[in-house]
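Input structure tokens:
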């Protein structure tokens, strides 16, 4: 009872006396909050009459409020959403979880432009000049550095071996970057008369170095056959090319040669194909060696290429002067392979107008196909359009050891 009396006294002291107590104050405060929330931009406050303003504006305020109910609804919805968001944040903050911020809204004018169609770039080109060196047919590209060169002229160029004297095989031309091996070495200058004289003197020095080589090789008891000797144009390096059956320990030989020539010595072991390329000569066809005239590099050659070209599998017929399979078997192989893709091969069983048989010889060059007939074992010649292939005879490939030695290891 005492607590209830204290509460009543406290309520009366907070709310005022008589009819102007807390209950009336609460109703008045609620009405003020309601009017403030629904107030229009041009509306006047509720107690305007107390301030001496005209009470006739009240009906106008009610009319304006009735004409725009949609805005009031949006404000109510916005307030409710904000209240829910605050309640959700308070709830999650108690668990120690902090939600990620919502992504920024993008409007119609805030968009990412579509990527433009990529245009095919034209292949880049670079100006080069083609230089080749003695005892070699391969052409190397160099940067001309704004110097105009003509075919047949000589130039001084910088290479990985040093400064060298070369001949211009291709004048200034533009080539694609894919054809160039970078970094592109520069051409130092055009060869002068002094450079020509020095190049001739270097050739004489190379010839005089051969007897010294043989003397030092015999002294060290080494089995090495000298192929060529080459000085760089500035005499900074002397290179000896040799062949040998296996690996050779020539460290002592290098010391002896360096003590005589007083320059940097380089010994390079090469194969029999490289030897033929350096020396040159005539092949069985009567023409100069392919490797010495136009082939830039050596590629793998196999006996299978000779078979597909219907050549006699005799070592004397398909080997070159170097003792290996002829290089022409390789660069002609692509043509034979392309043509025989649509042409009957040897050992193919075929139907002919005169019976069934087996192809024993096929040549797309002449267009004639020789077939061994099954009935009388005779050989008859037909054209490609007269035959119908039925299958292949399985033949065991038997290659002699002598032919296997001709292939590159």
């Amino acid at each position: 009872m005492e607590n209830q009396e204290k509460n009543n006294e406290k309520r009366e002291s907070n709310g005022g006396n008589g009819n102007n107590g807390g209950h009336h104050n609460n109703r008045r405060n609620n009405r003020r909050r309601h009017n403030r929330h629904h107030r229009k931009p041009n509306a006047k406050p509720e107690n305007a009459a107390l301030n001496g303003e005209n009470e006739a504006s009240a009906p106008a305020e009610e009319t304006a409020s009735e004409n725009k109910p949609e805005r009031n609804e949006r404000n109510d919805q916005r307030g409710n959403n904000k209240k829910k968001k605050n309640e959700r944040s308070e709830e999650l903050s108690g668990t120690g979880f902090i939600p990620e911020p919502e992504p920024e809204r993008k409007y119609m004018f805030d968009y990412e432009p579509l990527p433009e169609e990529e245009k095919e770039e034209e292949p880049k080109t670079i100006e080069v000049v083609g230089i080749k060196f003695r005892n070699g047919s391969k052409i190397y590209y160099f940067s001309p550095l704004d110097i105009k060169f003509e075919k047949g002229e000589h130039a001084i160029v910088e290479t990985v071996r040093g400064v060298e004297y070369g001949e211009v095989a291709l004048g200034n031309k533009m080539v694609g970057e894919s054809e160039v091996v970078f970094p592109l070495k520069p051409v130092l200058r055009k060869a002068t008369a002094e450079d020509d004289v020095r190049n001739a003197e270097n050739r004489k020095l190379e010839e005089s170095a051969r007897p010294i080589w043989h003397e030092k090789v015999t002294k060290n008891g080494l089995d090495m056959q000298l192929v060529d000797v080459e000085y760089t144009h500035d005499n900074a390096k002397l290179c000896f090319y040799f062949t040998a059956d296996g690996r050779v320990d020539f460290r002592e030989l290098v010391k002896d040669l360096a003590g005589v020539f007083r320059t940097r010595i380089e010994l390079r072991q090469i194969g029999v194909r490289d030897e033929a390329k350096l020396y040159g000569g005539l092949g069985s066809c009567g023409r100069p060696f392919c490797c010495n005239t136009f082939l830039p590099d050596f590629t793998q050659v196999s006996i299978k290429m000779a078979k597909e070209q219907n050549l006699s599998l005799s070592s004397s017929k398909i080997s070159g002067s170097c003792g290996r399979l002829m290089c022409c078997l390789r660069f002609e192989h692509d043509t034979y392979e392309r043509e025989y893709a649509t042409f009957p091969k040897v050992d193919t069983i075929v139907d002919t107008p005169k019976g069934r048989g087996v192809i024993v010889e096929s040549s797309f060059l002449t267009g004639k196909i020789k077939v061994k007939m099954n009935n009388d074992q005779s050989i008859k010649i037909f054209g490609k359009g007269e035959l119908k292939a039925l299958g292949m005879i399985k033949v065991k490939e038997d290659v002699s050891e002598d032919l296997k030695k001709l292939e590159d290891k």
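The chain is about 35% helix and 20% strand. Confidence is low (pLDDT under 50) at residues 15-23, 43-67.
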